[in-house]
Amino acid sequence: MVSRTSLKTKSPAISVLLPVYNAEEYVANVIESILQQTFADFEFIIIDDYSSDKSWEIVKKYSKKDKRIIALKNKYNLGGCKTLNKGLKLARGKYVARVDHDDWSYQDRLEKQFKFMELHSKVGIVGGIMEIINETGKVIGKRKYSLSDSEIRKRIFWYSPFSHPLVMIKKSILDKVGYYNPAYVPADDYELYFRIGKESKFANLPDVLLQYRIIKSSMTYNLTRKMELATFKVRSLYAKDKHYKMSKIDQFLNVIQYFSFFIIPPRIRISLFNLLRNTQ
Prior knowledge:
Oligomer: single chain
């Protein structure tokens, strides 16, 4: 395991942050996808959230092979939000790139996002397009996102404007607005975007940069219910914020979505959501 003190004193350009929990089947793939990036100036913070499978053993094996990896294990399960905040406190990079333990980043992802951020100083967060894959790795769809700041703000009350495991964020912005807020789990990333947008501009690249894996066992009714309730809570919080404008159409769609929560089965709502989200 590589400690922070063994790293070079020079801060890296990017801190890649990967929380891991019971992901022995996929975690090696995601680690490989980062280590094979065309952009090499990064530290790779991997935090195992007290997994009960062999995830930690796999992480330790990789940490011995690459000095850019900072491998940590929680003493008990903290959950994704607190684990991410733990990693953000350690991050030394100018930018923080998120990645999840069951996804795959294309080799030029970090390079493209870094170059974009360097050229657009007013942008505080950038994402991209993601392919959706099933448990076996087969591509089953593609999810696009609005590209410009104005378009993202126009749709931010409809759905989350970024793929969370695909974002790159200025660390200085995160230090200014604060990290993930546990009060809004599991929509804590969505709430964070609103805070980032009060201090900087939004952007998404028109490139496919990530393969996002859908695992059926994780798509439970209770999780969907919690996500939707937390999402409504976040939208209500920022509906009257001066940095955003919740239009009459936004309000109407949110009312429809709220009542559909009680009368439409989760699977049908997910299908309707994907249609709205321009999933191909």
